[in-house]
Amino acid sequence: MLRPVPARGGAAKGGAAVKKGVLQRLSRFLRPYALWLALSLALTVAGNLLALAAPLLSGRAVDAAGGAGGVDFPGVFRYCGGMLACYGLSSLLNYFTAARLIKIGQAVSHDLRRAAFDRMSELPVEYFDTHPAGDLVSRVCYDVDTVNAAISTDLLHICTSALTVGGSFVMLLAISPALACVFFVTVPL
């Protein structure tokens, strides 16, 4: 996984080639947690769908309130209860997803640190004569922490944001295609 760190001047030349293969090399460390990552993705989708269903129930509760004297109180309470259940279950699913992703990030970080230590212990002594050990340790720690943050929080935020935006557009089209057309024309302008 780890290769000797190039001197600072040479990092710019080979940077693109290293970046291309980073995900392939990182996938070896993610593979043992693929089932948990898939489960986390499924929980994220379910939580976002529930969060998107709550505004629909809110609209139905407002419709059930009707006009003067025509309030359907059992319907309003039913829709409000459904909204609370959607938001509560969505929050619970998002909590479990975040907790699981934090554990996965920590496990992957542990595996990466172990691989980095094993690799550095295999390097010849001459390598450490030309590359300060502090720089190597600093780069390894920073890179591993970056991977941990990406798995623990960034992955969840990206999925949540994409699902929320996509789901909102679909709901807008389903509720009122004419209003959706107005939205899609005026917002970009």
Tell me the total number of β-strands: 0
State the low-pLDDT regions, or none: 4-18
Mean pLDDT: 84
Largest sheet, if any? Answer: none
What is the N-to-C order of secondary-structure elements (H for helix, E for strand)? HHHHHH
Give the oligomeric state: single chain
The tally of helices reads 6
Radius of gyration: 25 Å
Large-scale geometry: elongated
Give the structural class. mainly alpha
Question: What is the CA-CA span between the terminal residues?
Answer: 48 Å
Question: How much strand content do the residues show?
Answer: under 5%
Query: Roughly what percent helix?
Result: over 70%
List keywords for this structure.
189 residues, 6 helices, mainly alpha, single chain, elongated
